[in-house]
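Incident review: delayed structure delivery

Summary: a single-chain prediction request sat in the queue longer than the usual turnaround. Root cause was a stuck worker, restarted by the on-call engineer. No data loss occurred. The affected request and its eventual output are reproduced below so the record is complete for anyone auditing the incident later.

Affected input:
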Amino acid sequence: MNINRALSNIKAEHGLTDKQVSTNLLLLGLMGQSNDSSMVDLYLTAGILFLLITMAATFMIASSFNMSVLERTQFFGLLRCLGATKKQIKRYIRREGLRYCLKGIPIGLLAGCGMMWAAVLFLNSLNVKYLPAMPVFQISWPAMAAGTVIGLLVVMLASRSPAKKAAKVSPQAAVTGNINHVNHQPINRAANTKWFRVDRAMGFQHAFSNKKSMVLISGSFGLSIILFLCFTVLITFMGHALRPLKPYAPDISIMGAKDSVLLDRSIMEEAKALPHIRNIYGRMVLHDIPATYQQGNNTATLISYDEPQFKWAADKLISGTIDQVQNGNGVFVTYSEDLKWKVGDTLTLGLPGGSSEVHIAGILSDAPFVAKKGGWIIISSEATFTALTGISDYTIIDMQVDEDISGQARSLITPEMRLLDEQQGNRETRAAYYAMAVFVYGFLLVIALVALINILNTVNASVSSRMGNYGVMRAVGMSGRQLKRMVMAEAAAYAISGSLLGGVLGLLLHRFFYGLMITSNWGELWQPPIMILTITIAAAILTTFVAAISPTRKMDKMSIVNVVNAQ
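Output delivered after worker restart:
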């Protein structure tokens, strides 16, 4: 059923306007039928990430196929000598890929179902009211079908390049194992030893001798870094989306039974004397203030902040300064896509004592309040609030506690007041947050594992394809240590070029996704993830050098006589 079309028909039939009809954006988003801009941005983000994951899987499987082809060169050569055509060799590689699918896809589907059931059991065990109980042993047939189709497509795409490479090898070269003329471009000049020793210079020359191979290997490295950087945006999104876990979320609140009831400041002093209080803070609030800005009129809600709340507001500041507001020289407003707030602009407030002008001294990405009827949120210091309104008593007092003191807090209130106890709800929300964090970080771990396997296969395939060359170099006098340095230099060339490519493209995509998911919803400006980028590149480079250890050990065990006889 097309809900959007049905909604349009209902509005047309009953003459309703867009403002008279509201929709459940979250539910429509989960159903894939939301036209909301934020949901469309999430769809776009999910689509691009899906393509990146598919590319990474294709690179990884292609690297595995390449390794398999390189290790069985003589086998394919014997097939060619026995009369097998290039087309038959390609068909053989593709059918081998299908055989891998027959084994790998069922294992992957079973493992996926097992992980999903374990995740459902874990979520059900949390007993969180925001997450209804879910059936455990349930199978999603559309997901199974999608996984099967994607697996087949990825394997078929990944097998094309190795199949072509195996078919291009001549029977004579394949039997002798000398496929250097197929895998690498001929070297027309000696290595440049002006800046590096001959072994390292040859390693760099080997890396850049085949431009196509260099682009593919660097792209494979870069894609691993891009994937990791892009998925870290989900962590920031998770931190913004779960509002109850913000540092200002109260455990216990005291407020008037009616909006007109205010709390005397003596109650704050008595509450501060209670044990096990981690933070205590109060706010004065005045609703439905007529407000005028250069772009139009609206109603506003004026709220006061004290010292703890100003500290938390510093993390949400996207423009202006905290000190100006804290010292009574301006107010905060919250980010809005419709209103182009600017620091220094003036707001006119129609207060009970007469109109007053306030200056915008800062803009926050968001605030833990929702104004009535889409009004504006204006935040000031306590002194500014009292000077504007003449009110000095609190509207609400919030407490964050280390132990349950709701009984002691309840002894402070009078019949005109009420106490809100959110301790159980906060514990459940924290449990839900930790559950979501486990899945997000778990997915990042899977991405890191895919990147690790991809780098290991790529480096192994590149070095193994030159094993014959390394044997000849050993035969003409190059020492084992020099060969190791040459391999390490080649691996370093791949790692550095891939890190540069992945770093630049990864930052661009990170900024793009950040704008779609974070800035457009909360107004928080993008900042380069220098720490994450540094750790990711360092891990990729370290993995590259670790991947080069296995081929160097093979070279140590390589028989020079057998290699020379094979040439």
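Verification: The chain is about 60% helix and 15% strand.
Action items: add queue-age alerting; document worker restart procedure.
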